[in-house]
Amino acid sequence: MIDTEKIEKAVRMILEAIGEDPDREGLRETPARVARMYKEIFCGLWEDPEIHLEKIFTEQHEEMILVKDIPIYSMCEHHLLPFFGKAHVAYIPRKGKVTGLSKLARVVEGFAKRPQLQERLTTQIADSIMRRLNPQGVLVIIEAEHMCMTLRGIRKPGSKTITSAVRGSFQRSEATRAEALALIKG
Ligand SMILES: Nc1nc2c(ncn2[C@@H]2O[C@H](COP(=O)(O)OP(=O)(O)OP(=O)(O)O)[C@@H](O)[C@H]2O)c(=O)[nH]1
Ligand SMILES: [Zn+2]
């Protein structure tokens, strides 16, 4: 499990290293707060998000299912700063193998709550749905703003990074892909 005691010690050291006094009133509880926060935002490291896709229904619907505008918050693994935005997840079931809509958002959440790269997050969501549901196709798009590009470094607030992962029929058929993109835009 996440070692909150170790995080507390490390945060105290960071505070000392930047020249702060970790014992002054406002900072006294900060190491413990940060430890609780990291436990929360990195909890995805301790779960297998694919488990959410175990619950499958049979419903003869072999058309596209899209859950769009799923809010995402993740942490860039290079700087440990947040990146956040929206995820769009579409799939076309095979043989009526359909999952609960909330489960798609749970998979997104499970992979987001880790130190991440936006590309890896996108791929992991698509591949887990392919593995568990064996659908005709999957398309995942993530649009996000990276704090490491806005509050520091190159400082380009408002810039967005868009990543996609397309599998199966979405990869093969331009029309299927176009339909999903139009629904996401619309
Ligand atoms: N591909 C990818 N790059 C990311 C992501 N998050 C942050 N980065 C980039 O990771 C890179 C790390 O580059 P480095 O040169 O090692 O670090 P740095 O000196 O802090 O880089 P600058 O941000 O350019 O100041 C930067 O270009 C970031 O923009 C991500 O999700 N995907
Ligand atoms: Zn970063």
From TrEMBL:
This protein's pathway: Cofactor biosynthesis; 7,8-dihydroneopterin triphosphate biosynthesis; 7,8-dihydroneopterin triphosphate from GTP: step 1/1
A GO biological process held by the record: tetrahydrofolate biosynthetic process
Reactions catalysed: GTP + H2O = 7,8-dihydroneopterin 3'-triphosphate + formate + H(+)
Record-listed Zn(2+) binding positions: C76, H79, C148
Zinc found in the keyword field: yes
Gene Ontology annotations for the cellular component aspect, listed alphabetically: cytoplasm
Keywords annotated in UniProt: GTP-binding, Hydrolase, Metal-binding, Nucleotide-binding, One-carbon metabolism, Zinc
Domain of life: Bacteria
EC number of the protein: 3.5.4.16
PROSITE patterns cross-referenced by the UniProt entry: GTP_CYCLOHYDROL_1_1, GTP_CYCLOHYDROL_1_2
Keyword Nucleotide-binding: yes
InterPro entries noted in UniProt: GTP-CH-I_C/QueF, GTP-CH-I_N, GTP_CycHdrlase_I, GTP_CycHdrlase_I_CS, GTP_CycHdrlase_I_dom
Cited NCBIfam families: folE, PRK09347.1-2, PRK09347.1-3
Quaternary assembly: Homopolymer.
Family the UniProt entry places it in: Belongs to the GTP cyclohydrolase I family.
HAMAP family documented for this protein: FolE (MF_00223)
PANTHER family: GTP CYCLOHYDROLASE 1 (PTHR11109:SF7), GTP CYCLOHYDROLASE I (PTHR11109)
Protein name per UniProt: GTP cyclohydrolase 1
